[in-house]
Amino acid sequence: MTETTTPLDDEDIEFVTPPKIEAPEDHPLWPKVRDQLRTVFDPEIPSNIFELGLIYKVAIAEDNAVKVEMTLTSPGCPVAGTMPGMVDEAVRMIPGIGAVDVEIVWEPSWHPGMMAESARMALDMHY
């Protein structure tokens, strides 16, 4: 499922950014890619995949091709077959984006400590 999100203020970026993501923060398209990733939701969890920490790495090439490495909460996740397509579709909506490649990876294994503070609050998982 995708939803719309409002663009982030500088103050909000840290709150919604997971602690372990690798991203091209200096690339001019990164804020748009990040915002689009925040529109993709796992239907079983009331938080988006970016804030859940399911996006491990984003690379944007010189031709604006985007490579996304992501994981799922578990290998048996019911949306395993559809989630990469949802991410691909969301990123492709950005004007100027080249090819999009989404890869599911299993290392490192996802755990709740990978979530942004916003996701922990939304899921009432404070620690």
Helical proportion, percent range: 10-25%
Widest beta sheet: strand line-up: 1-2-3
**How do the helices and strands follow one another from N- to C-terminus?**
HHEEHEH
Low-confidence stretches: none
How would a textbook summarize the main sheet? Answer: 3 strands, mixed
- The average pLDDT is 88
Q: Give the CATH architecture.
A: 2-Layer Sandwich
Structural class of the helices, strands and pairings? alpha+beta
Instruction: Give the helix tally.
Output: 4
Radius of gyration: 14 Å
Count of individual domains: 1
Strand content: 5-15%
Which term fits the overall shape? globular
Quickly name the level 1 CATH class.
Alpha Beta
User: Got a strand count?
Assistant: 3
**How far apart are the termini?**
28 Å
CATH topology: the name is GMP Synthetase, Chain A, domain 3
The CATH H-level superfamily is: Fe-S cluster assembly (FSCA)
